[in-house]
Design goal:
442 residues; D-Maltodextrin-Binding Protein, domain 2; 9-stranded mixed β-sheet; binds pentane-1,5-diamine
């Protein structure tokens, strides 16, 4: 009995020790958790040198990537992993704020300039719409990249008019030709918007209301419309859509604007023409931002890393490397992005200020004000049970594919076994008969 008590005491001490260790500061190492293909590798590699110049301290960066917001969130929420800086999308930032999972960003950078005010006021305002009580989101999150969800299409196989109306995605002529972003919130919004297109046209409801409606009725509608879309879906992609489109293996891809920019450029190099539009019915404008989770163990380096990401030259290099658009909106960025060979002029005053109301800038990267006006930002589904219902619906929608595949596989395996059994039985019987005849002849 005494021995057992001793072992229990040791176990408690061990657990306490582990907890203590996991909260201890971890100088010299910065753990970054970001989306895949979402940073210029040289920018990342140069951070330690810049950090040393600013602080006199050495730092080693441990960098990991994810493809799906929820995967990242589970690691932090359930696994308490000690990432110092991570990059969730807006609705996950909102959830992390609500669940008190974030630390405020300390902007006391000593002699280092604070680059965070370089962010577009438009994005800052959108972020702050998600504030929780007196906790302002912009004190806890710094926007990184932003964009829209829309349709990337092969111009030889799909017309611009077809791509512009999301209704066409349901057209049987695109059977097995459509790739969908493996993101339940983007797909949910698309389905609800399409289902309510007539009410939207009459002005009875807004894109924002639809996309953020998690009533039982809305969930059932989304399920019905997403299931109806399945014959057209060639795959749910987290990151391979751009490659499939570049290789001409799919005709349309409901995806994020930054992936579209990358795919359009890559495809052009191999002679395939792709383009991207935001559905006329409406869509979502999204942004991802840097946050410091409460299990972080190098808060200082995390804040410096976030600040470094807001330096205009760094923002430009990241944009050039990945195709996405930075939330930094300084005049040098606008100047760099102006392309006088473009035919279209866009109103980007909402992002770069009043002087940018008619500028020649790639409309896929920086949508015109009118496009932004038909989009809305995705908010988190705050009620746990409703969120669970949406997730269950999503796995039913996606799971059907898997089930059909598994059923086919089972049939193929058992069918094969059955045929093999019958053939071997027949052969055995034939051998028996032959032997019988031989014996009789003797
Ligand atoms: C890039 C992922 C972009 C995330 N691979 C868009 N929210």
């Amino acid at each position: 009995m005494k021995k057992l008590k001793y072992i229990l005491l040791l176990a408690v001490l061990f657990v306490l020790g582990a907890c203590q260790r996991s909260q201890e500061e971890r100088n010299g190492i910065l753990k970054v958790y970001n989306w895949a293909d979402y940073i210029d590798e040289d920018v990342l590699a140069e951070f330690p040198e810049w950090y040393k110049e600013q602080t006199g301290e050495d730092i080693e960066v441990i960098y990991q990537v994810f493809d799906i917001n929820e995967v990242m969130l589970t690691k932090i929420e359930r696994g308490h992993e000690d990432f110092d800086v991570v990059c969730p999308s807006e609705y996950i930032i909102e959830r992390m704020m609500r669940k008190d999972m974030l630390l405020p960003i300390n902007r006391d950078f000593g002699n280092t300039p604070d680059y965070i005010p370089n962010l577009a006021p438009y994005i800052q305002d959108e972020l702050n719409k998600m504030s929780q009580g007196d906790k302002k989101v912009t004190d806890y999150a710094v926007a990184y990249m932003w964009g829209t969800a829309g349709t990337l299409y092969n111009t030889e196989l799909v017309t611009e008019e077809e791509a512009l109306e999301c209704a066409n995605m349901w057209d049987p002529k695109f059977a097995n030709k459509l790739l969908m972003k493996d993101s339940y919130r983007d797909c949910y919004g698309l389905a609800i918007i399409y289902a309510n297109r007539e009410r939207l046209e009459k002005g009875e409801v807004t894109v924002e209301q639809l996309m953020n409606d998690n009533s039982h009725e809305a969930i059932a509608t989304a399920e019905e419309y997403l299931k109806a879309l399945k014959p057209n879906i060639a795959g749910w992609e987290a990151d391979f859509g751009k490659e499939m489109m570049t290789k001409g293996k799919a005709w349309m891809n409901f995806t994020w604007s930054g992936d579209a920019v990358w795919a359009i450029e890559e495809a052009a190099e191999v002679g395939v023409e792709l383009d991207y539009v935001v559905p006329l019915e409406g869509s979502n404008v999204w942004f991802d931002g840097w946050v410091i989770p409460k299990y972080a163990r190098n808060v200082k380096a995390a804040s410096y890393f976030i600040n470094y990401m807001c330096r205009p030259d760094i923002a430009l290099r990241n944009m050039d490397a990945i195709g996405y658009v930075s939330a930094v909106a300084t005049p040098e960025i606008l100047e760099e992005k102006i392309d006088t060979t473009l035919e279209n002029y866009s109103d980007l005053s909402y992002f770069f200020g009043p002087e940018a109301d008619s500028v020649q800038v790639d409309p896929v990267q920086y949508p015109d004000k009118k496009v932004i006006e038909r989009c809305a930002v995705i908010r988190d589904f705050t009620n746990k049970e409703d969120l669970q219902k949406v997730l269950e619906m999503w796995s039913r929608v996606k799971g059907d594919n898997l089930n059909a595949g598994i059923v086919l596989l089972i049939f193929a395996v058992f069918g094969g076994l059955f045929v093999w059994l019958v053939i071997s039985k027949v052969k055995k019987y034939q051998r028996k008969i032959r032997r019988k005849y031989r014996r009789r002849r003797r």
